[in-house]
Amino acid sequence: MPAVTRAADAGGSVEAGLLTILLALTVALLAAGYGRGVHELWARRGAGAVLPGWRVAAFGTGVLVVLAADAGPLAATAQRSFAGHMTQHMVLLLVAGPLLAAGAAGLPLSLACPVRLRRRLARLRSAPATRALRRPATTALLAGAAQTLVLWVWHLPAPYVVALERPAVHALEHACFVAGSWLLWAPVLGASRHRLPAPAAVLLLAATMLPASALGAVLTFAPQPIYPSGVLGPDPLADQQLAGLLMWAPMDVAVLAATLTVFLRWLLHLQRRQPETVGLPRPAVPAPEGRTEGAWR
Q: From CA 245, how far away is CA 242, in angstroms rounded?
């Protein structure tokens, strides 16, 4: 039995190493494609004309965060406890995903494709079904549903244990987190032409936060461990409760901060355009000389 265990551990180590290399290659290819598209876009229209520099910096930072979460000290911490693993998940969901979404990568990545593939993508985007799916409201509904589904499914005990035991499933889990978060935040932080109206963005973020808070509450207030003891820390119940808090508090704080920011920016925009719509008094118009106030009543 010890020999079989050592062989299994060796096989898992080899699989994990291959997946780490594959992750690095995938991320490098994504970053290279984005960089090439940005270079071509800036060469055509001028630096920052269509894609500001801060969006490029956001995308690059998001790529680095993905690498740091999956192949750094945080990955080692995630192997020791459920709370450490939850921290890794929150970094992918609340840091990497929003940063990648803020990068507005659709146009740069399409410009980086070969001409033939670019033409096929253009035809695909112009198809009626694709146009319907690309509407901001449709994208928002799909994004909210995908984020909720990804969060709940991968934190159920059975899928969670399988992800810990199989490096390939673990990589798929993290890819789902990044993709779901990217899709969720794209209508909020992405390019203005694909962005949701502010009221709809507020509803999207609030509706997405509630299921995540519910899951965090379940983990925090469960009277006994939900997960097998082998995937929890030395104190299983305390580890599970801490993991629930790590999901609950950061998710609520991040989403509430984003929601308030979007809402306040919307109010300021209304104030600049129509002061009366936000309850501000209209400026008084002075009466012409020679007329009294009562003469105008």
A: 5
